[in-house]
Amino acid sequence: MLPDSRYDADGCLRFPRIAEDAASKSVRWLVYYTAPRHEKAVAKHFQCRSLDCFLPLVRNPRRWKNGVRAQVDQPLFPGYVFARVEPKLYYKVLNVPGVLSVVGPNHNPALLEDEEIESLRAGLAERNSRPHPFLEVGQQARIVTGAFAGKTGILVRELSNMRVVLTLEAIMKSFSVEVDAGELEMVS
Fold it and tell me: Tens of pLDDT along 101-144?
C-alpha cells in the first residue's frame, strides 16, 4: 500500500504553512474560539502550520461506563486556544479546521502580552490548577511569590485548602490555583 501523500512525516495533514517572524514586535498572542471539544486538534493544526500555540491542560480523573478509571488531560479553558500570530495573519488562521472565531470586542482581536502567557505556562506547571467559574466580586488577594507573583484574584476557601481565582479578562474565563496563606497579601 502506498503512503498517503496528504500527510507529512509528523502525521500532519499537508496544509500551507502559516509561519511568521517570531522576532517581529508585531507578532502578538491571540485567543481563538474553537468548536466544542476540538481544542487539541486545533493546537495540533497550529503546530503543523508552524504557529506558536499554547493549550493549557489539566489532568482530571475520569471513570468510563465500563468501570475503567484513567487520568485524562482536558483543556483548562474549554473552547479556547492561544496562538502567537502576525497581524496580517489574524484572520487567515480562521481557515484552520475547528477554529470558529478570534476572541475580542467588535470582531477585533484581543491581544495578550507575552508575559501573561509565560506566567500561565510557568504557573500552571508548578501549581495545582483547575477551571473555575468566572467571578467578578469577592475578596481580592494578590499572590506575592512564584510564577503568578503580582497577579490579583479572588480568594476562595475549599475545605482545608486556600485557592485564588485568577481571571483572563480577554476571554472572560477564570481558573483557580492552590496557594498558602503566606503567599498572599490582601488588596484593599
Answer: 999 888 788 889 999 999 888 888 777 787 766 644 467 888 88
Q: What is the 3-state secondary structure (H, E, C) of the chain?
A: CCCCCCECCCCCECCCCCCCCCCCCCCEEEEEEECCCCHHHHHHHHHHCCCEEECCEEEEEEECCCCCEEEEEEECCCCEEEEEECHHHCCHHHHCCCEEEECCHHHCCCCECHHHHHHHHHHHHHCCEEEECCCCCCCEEEECCCCCCCCEEEEEEECCEEEEEEEECCCCEEEEEEECHHHEEECC
Q: Domain of 143: which CATH number?
A: 2.30.30.30
Same domain, 156 and 168: yes
- On whether both 25 and 79 belong to a single domain, the answer is yes
Q: For the chain, what is the domain count?
A: 2
Q: Are 8 and 81 within one domain?
A: yes
pTM above 0.90, yes or no: no
pLDDT at 92: 86
Per-residue pLDDT reduced to its tens digit, 14-62: 555 665 554 556 788 999 999 999 999 999 999 998 899 999 998 888 8
| Segments forming the whole domain that contains residue 120 | 114-188
